[in-house]
Design a protein that fits this description.
By secondary structure, the protein is mainly alpha-helical. The protein starts with 10 loop residues before the first helix and ends with a helix. The radius of gyration is 31 Å and the shape is elongated. Strands 1-4-5 form a 3-stranded mixed beta sheet. It is built from 11 helices and 7 strands. Helix 6 packs across helix 7 and helix 7 packs parallel to helix 9.
Length: about 250
């Protein structure tokens, strides 16, 4: 695997003028993050101390050390998660490397980082194909909100946010076409939920319970009719007997 080492002068990529490197979505990859966020990242201690002169391999070490994911918090301080995202946009690893990051099972925050990078850089069809399998990944994550507090989430929930929301971790995402539209165009196959069998079983159980309920109600109604008819017959007999006595 070829490992790309980042340029000593990171400003080469972040320079607003005359960028001539690899583009993503027809733009400088760094610009996939908003300028205000980029500025806060490059001015942060974490970026200067932990993101200097790292490559695709040593970036994994930084990702393994992460204990939460998030955007900016407090006084707009960027999280390590955002800093490493910008570093990935600077390194532009090969797709095989990104897939290794994404699908390894030992380091969940590395998987989350790779998922975020996929959402930023891949084309819509590839975003769906690459991220949807992670909707079955229930590993826990800690997420930090903009006030600085933490809350519990899961990889599947984080991926669902990436597929359905336009802003995640303080970052505006390119709008994804609706999945149904891509299905109609033949670009994607219809997705079958892994819960489909369980939902069918639940529906069958509910139908069975409904049928049992109907049978019980019908039986009760028959018994009530028979009871009423029996009372009527007895009352009629008593009336006839009284008339005979008279």
């Amino acid at each position: 695997m070829d490992i790309k080492v980042h340029h000593v002068d990171a400003k080469r990529m972040l320079d607003e003028r005359g960028y001539e490197g690899t583009t993503i979505h027809n733009q400088n990859p760094a610009h996939l993050l908003e300028k205000a966020v980029r500025d806060r990242i490059t001015e942060s201690y974490y970026w200067k101390e932990q993101c200097f002169a790292i490559n695709e391999a040593t970036l994994c070490d930084r990702a393994v050390e992460m204990t939460y994911l998030g955007g900016t918090y407090g006084q707009q301080k960027p999280s390590p998660f955002l800093c490493l995202t910008l570093k990935l946009l600077q390194l532009l690893p090969d797709r095989d490397v990104v897939m290794e990051y994404l699908h390894q099972k030992d380091f969940k925050y590395l998987s989350a980082l790779a998922a975020f990078y996929v959402r930023l850089t891949f084309e819509p069809v590839d975003v769906y194909k690459t991220l949807e399998p992670l909707l079955g990944d229930y590993r826990k994550l800690r997420r930090r909100n903009k006030e600085g507090g933490y809350f519990l989430t899961y990889i599947d929930q984080f991926v669902d946010d990436l597929l359905t929301k336009e802003r995640v971790c303080g970052t505006s995402l390119r709008k994804l076409p609706a999945r149904t539209l891509l299905e109609d165009l033949g670009s994607l196959e219809v997705r079958v939920s892994p819960l489909a069998d369980e939902i069918d079983d639940i529906d069958c159980d509910e139908e069975g319970e409904s049928a049992d309920g109907r049978s019980a109600r019908e039986g009760s109604e028959v018994e009530e009719v028979e009871r009423v008819n029996g009372n009527r017959i007895r009352n009629r007999s008593e009336v006839e007997m009284d008339s005979g006595s008279d």
